[in-house]
Amino acid sequence: MKRGIGLTDEDRIPWLLRINEAIESVSEPNVFISCSALKKSYREILALGQNRVSFIYLKCSKDQLKQRLDQRKNHFFNAALLEDQLSVLEEPDLSENCLTVLCGHKTKMQIIDFIVANFCLTNIKHSTSTLLSD
C-alpha cells in the first residue's frame, strides 16, 4: 500500500485471521481494534467464532477522507489508493453489529466522545445504526 498498490483479498485474509486470533486471546470485555474491514466478508472473518465483536463504521465523504489523508504525516497509506479503497467498500448493513458514525466536520475528539457514549450505552446488536450528523 505504501507503494500505491492496493491489497487483494488474498493479501488481506491472513492479516484478518491474525486479528481474529488476537480478538480471541483478549480477556478484557472492551477492547478496540482499528482496521479497514472494507467488505462484509472481511468483517465476517474478524467476527468468526466471536459473539462479542461489534463494528464502528466511520462514514465520511470522499472529500473529507481526502482532507484527512492530506493532514497525515509519515503514514503508510498512500492517498492515491483512496479511490481503490472506496470502490471496494461495502457499507455495513442492518444485519451486522455496527455503529455507524457520520463524521461530517466533527473533530477527532467529538467522534471519539460520540463513540464512547453510544457504544457503551447502546445494545447495537439489535438496533439500527446510530448516526452523528453535522
Concise description?
By secondary structure, this protein is mainly alpha-helical. 42% of the residues lie in helices and 7% in strands. It has a single domain (9-126), classed as Rossmann fold, CATH 3.40.50.300.
Q: In terms of topology, how is this protein built?
A:
Elements: H1 9-25, H2 40-47, E1 55-59, H3 62-71, H4 82-88, E2 98-102, H5 108-121
Parallel strand pairs: 1-2
Helix pairs in contact: 1-2
Could you explain how this protein is built, in words?
One of its GO terms (molecular function) is gluconokinase activity. One of its GO terms (biological process) is carbohydrate metabolic process. Keywords: ATP-binding, Kinase, Nucleotide-binding, Transferase. This protein has about 130 residues and is mainly alpha-helical. The protein has a single domain (about 10-125), classed as P-loop containing nucleotide triphosphate hydrolases (Rossmann fold, 3-Layer(aba) Sandwich). Helix content is about 40%, strand content about 5%. The chain contains five helices and two strands. The longest helix is centred in the N-terminal third of the chain and has 17 residues, at about 10-25. The chain is globular. Residues about 120-134 have low confidence and may be disordered.
